[in-house]
Amino acid sequence: MTDDLEARFRELEREVGANPPPTRPMPQPEAASVTGAIAQGWQGLTGWIHGLTGPAKIVAIVVVGLLAFKLLSFFLNLLSTLISLGLLAGVAYVLYKVFGPKQP
Q: What pLDDT does residue 9 have?
């Protein structure tokens, strides 16, 4: 019985030694994959625009420009809203500390 187990164990060792474990590619950090996706999308968009001809190319450039400015405007408005809310919260906190209920 022990000889059978030892023989089986040696056989398993040979199998494991003959087949190295598969190596997996290292996962990319989230930021790198996002920037890679953005770069790939941008290249696809510019390739598509370069493939157009005449008035279609001009219209595509104008539409992409308008969308880019709208997106930039949205993020700037979002940033200014967050700054305003932060300032409002700061003023409310100071007013609460000054005029809030006094503790005995």
A: 82
Pairwise CA distance, residues 58 & 8, whole Å: 73
Residue 5 tokens read as 């187990």
CA–CA gap between residue 84 and residue 53 (Å, rounded): 46
Q: In whole angstroms, what is the distance from residue 89 CA to residue 100 CA?
A: 15
Burial class (CB in 10 A: 0-12, 13-18, 19+), 101: exposed
The angle subtended at Cα 75 by Cα 73 and Cα 80, nearest 5°, is 95
Q: What is the mean pLDDT of residues 10-32?
A: 72
Measuring CA to CA, which residue among 81, 59, 61, 58 is closest to residue 69? 61
Stated pTM of the model: 0.54
Task: Indicate the helix (H) or strand (E) that contains 78.
Answer: helix 54-99
Tell me the backbone φ, ψ of residue 91, rounded to 5 degrees.
-65, -40
Helices 54-99 and 30-51, interaxial angle, to 10°?
150
